[in-house]
Amino acid sequence: MRNLNCPQLKKQLDELKFRIDDINESIQTASTCDHADKINGKMMFLEFLITDLRELLPFGFEIRKGEAMALEKFFGEKIEVSFLPKEITQDKLEQWKQLGLDLHYLPEINMNKSAKYPGWRKKPHSGAFGMWDMINKGTFPKDITQLKSGWFLIENIKKPWRISMGETQEYEDDLLAAIISGLKSKGVVDEAAIAESSKTGKIKKESRCSITLDELEDERTKKEFASIFAVSPECIDYPRAIEFNVLANMYYPQLGQANSSEHCSDRGQDGKTFKFVFGATRDIDQVDSFSASDRSTGVGFRVMIRLNQ
Predict the structure, then answer these.
(1) Are residue 275 and residue 226 in the same domain, yes or no?
(2) Whether 115 and 204 share a structural domain
(3) CA-based radius of gyration for the chain
(4) Which pLDDT belongs to residue 61?
(5) Could you tell me which of 158, 144, 180, 138 has the C-alpha nearest to residue 269?
(6) Does 31 have pLDDT greater than 90?
(7) Residue 44 in 3-state DSSP?
(8) Enclosing domain of residue 167
């Protein structure tokens, strides 16, 4: 793509406006088939002009436009989307896509319980041990409902089904499988504790399940994940509960079609954290809390990469 040329862009925009005005005038005065043919010819030229104009737009314009449209549909109002971070290039986008990562943007908005947005069809549930209940009890701060603005990458890997209390299907085509196996061999992830928690011993060495949030947030774990995703370890994170809920409503409703759970990175005053519970019967509105040091065969995770702004 060519570098942005402001004078050339202005010239093209002026030409585009002239052509549109010309077509509108032709339509108003058209009375014969001959006039219609001329209008069709002008429309065809206009399409070529628009195609050429797109080449003059800065990198990331179409990406920002797509995110702005999705956000407007969800919130019911126009949302300003910031420019892409300088670190993002076309080559990196293609690389991340091959690694199963989606690029998205969220604005700074407080998703409090009373908020009403057209796309927020399934809010976190209001039952015991859920997000709102734990906020009311003071276990979690009220600001955990605050979306933080910024660009990020998130894994689009399919969430597996939990077969029984001691066994969960694997994440299919998992690029992190070998790294997870290595982390267990190095003792970063406690393999013996996983075997004890599963009882049946059916948790595979490369499985994402039964790893604690504490182990996931270990610097050694983040360093290994960063190596495969070609980002800085400081960028490696996991979705917060409100982010997971909003993203599931906006882009990933299919996450409610499997009954396993996934870690969220919020931490409460007593060390508790959220796991995000999805399922055919519990769906994407389920957010329940448990300790960051607890492990469960039915709880996995997905990586979220927060890009530098």
Answers:
(1) yes
(2) yes
(3) 24
(4) 84
(5) 138
(6) no
(7) helix
(8) 77-306
